[in-house]
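Protein 1 of 2
SEQ + STRUCT:
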Amino acid sequence: MVHMRQLSRTTRRSAVAGVLTIGVVIGTGFGGSHATAGAPAAAPAAALPAGSVLDRIPPSVRDRMIAQEKLVDTASVVRTAVTAGAPRGYAGIGLVGDHVTLWWKGALPADIAAAVTAARHIAPVSVQHAAYSGSQLKAQADGLAEVVDADPADAAHGVRIKTDGSGLEVLVDTARGAKIPALPKSVVPVRTVPQKRLEQRSTRLDDVAPWSGGMRLYRDPGYICTSGFGVRDLSTATPYLITAAHCGDLGTEWKDWSGEPVGTTVQRNADHDAEMIAVPSVSNKIYVGGVEDGVQARVAGWTEVYPGQLLCQSGTVSAEATGAPVCNLEVKFHYTDREELVEATQLDGLEAARGGDSGGPVYAVTAAGTVLAAGTTTRTAGAGFGFQDFATYRQDFGDIVPVTEDGTGSCRVSYQVTDAWSTGYTVNVTVYNSGADVNGWHLGWNLPDSGQIQGRWNADVTQTGTAVTATNAAHNATITAGGAVTFGFTASGAPNTPSPITLNGVPCA
């Protein structure tokens, strides 16, 4: 029997709308036989850059986060295939230990099986049987949610979909004597789970334009929050800061802590706790140290979030209290209600966020010391942490992307040397598309002098001198907005970290 930590998905107290979100939840595995395949061991990590976000994270947590990069690549490739079609037997996907697990009811369709095979070039993938599909459980959860929503004073406040496909959980908080309501019969297993309600959190000090993420935002009368990330609209190039919608209404005039005007809230989704502040200019950095030291990290792009993934948050009040980001935040599940938040847990039992951290940046950390935008802080309860993911910002506000070093932010490449020997090496490449759908792609980069491509998979790879071009295969010609594809190659010589890497001629992060 294989034992795994339970990772689930929740429907919160509120009107439930939409279909089951794909690729964001996992649950307890059944154990027993399952299909797995390994990938070559990763090359040793490079020396850590001094004075970066990596220095602010406990080493054991930092190393686990960096080790998850290839797992996120793997999950993203599978998730892209899932979202390209109907949900079918899909139940969930997530990071479990040193591998990715996909839960599926019934036999894998050919397109999903092909994606799993491709993804296994990056990291191991386990395919587990699900008793119910996510769509089946969502239908049952909607009926339970009507009862849970009926009386705000009772103990029930959420319905979780266990996305190993095994059943549902109703969250209850019996504080102050609240009673658990009678629940209707369900055709799937249902159990009640004690859990405190999460509370919203609202409140470095004197930033200057171009404005950065993680700075303290102020509005009259005496209300403070934290900026999330500098973003831009790909279609208009308009710059914005993002933050939590409960921080301010449309038309709110924001200042920094010194009183300098920052910008005005011009777009807002109150249900999703997401808003956009129009500003003259934004930076490609976020604050990651204390409130006075000025330590920043460069934003390299954005990431989908998966259960089991470790993240950090850099709200200003937590920074004031600790001098560092709050990390070791493990994603547990996504809500499917009108809020559609993501919940995580601080694994050391520490305070996940503090009043005034709302709207602040939530992010993944890379081995290079850069960060990937994952979302913004909404609420917390002790070690419990709720945030809105960046993918939902894109659903709400269109083709927005974090501002990155080259200013484009429309693509990102994970270039991982997975094996090396005296005369050559192997690389897995994952291409993320942060912009509009790409139909037909070619990726360009340079090998070191005397290096020669010797083998490839999932792409046609050609070489002229040191210049290399990888062109899509027939089955992976489209990279959907927010999606990813993977390919790999072997080459002679010594590996390098190529820069720039271009997608259809445009530099990628």
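Protein 2 of 2
SEQ + STRUCT:
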Amino acid sequence: MIYFIKFVYSFVLPPGLFVILLLGLTVWLWRRSRRPALALLGVTLLLYLSMTPWVSNLLMGGLERQYDKPELLQGDVIVVLGGGASSGTPDIDGEGNLFGSAANRLLTAVRLYRQTGLPILFSGGQVFPDSGNEADIAKRQLIGLGVPERDIMAENRSLNTEQNAANTAAMMNSKGLSHPILVTSAFHMPRAMAFFKDNGLAPLAYPTDYTASRGSGLYPAMFTPSPGAVNNTGTALKEYLGLLAARF
């Protein structure tokens, strides 16, 4: 019963509701002009597929499987890329919080720090007027998680991945560092690696924050619209477009 309720909700609430409304409009239009109705049906099907976990997992999985976790950790600094932050929101020891992806990256960096003792360089600035400065927030949270301030570097000016790579390379060069262990979300790793290599670095990829499960089968919920799937589909398409732009 619980799965049936979830199925019904997926078409009663957005984004599934919009699929139902468009299908209704297609039926209404079919009685008047079939060619526009067929065009609208095609658009509706594309929109529906983009809302399903099945499609979003295929797209995200194609990105997330490009780099595996390394067996040996070889490097002289742990570089973590930001992924968004809020400003003015309450935290245990101050204000401002990293968004989910950035927080997962930060936790992975702390675990790697405890394994290796390497310093952490967090890269990310204040992207929008109402967002938090990612590196400044990350530094405070790293200290709160037990990482000594002397082992933390904050690159707090970057607004996108290209600037992350360029500004991190400059900071690393000024401190005599050259072999970063790069920590970012698995879906983001291919584009991040491309930019870091373009800036003369040879990073070791350490992907984290996975979204697409591996080895899972197909079941009805994989074909029901969900807001999370829409978000993941959009994120994946952005990464593929970014990879294409980086190569040209």
